[in-house]
Amino acid sequence: LTKDWVLDLSPKVRYALDQGVGYLIYSGDKDFICNWRGGEAWSNTIGFDGQDTFTSSTYQKWNVDGEEAGEFKHHDDFTFLRVFEAGHMVPMDQPKRSLAMLQSFIDREL
Fold this sequence. Notes:
By secondary structure, the protein is of the alpha+beta class. It has five helices and four strands. It has a four-stranded mixed sheet. It comes from Euplotes crassus. GO terms for molecular function: serine-type carboxypeptidase activity.
């Protein structure tokens, strides 16, 4: 672990969001490597325009083919999604949900 390092990308994400670039941050609820609570906490502290509105927003259910697949919250171009029954490799654990997630984000439905 002596070679581990941390790089705070918040300033770059904040800049991109303030320029109108959309961001989707997602985590599997079973991920013990990068747990969803950490992703949620980071998402709540980036400091972009609209951060307060995002942070205070409530989670909404996210369904795929009529099945509850996760929950999300968003404000303008920033979305945080918790994917149910997925670990660190969400696309491998939930391929159908992953495709739906990307399509919904591209279509601005998420």
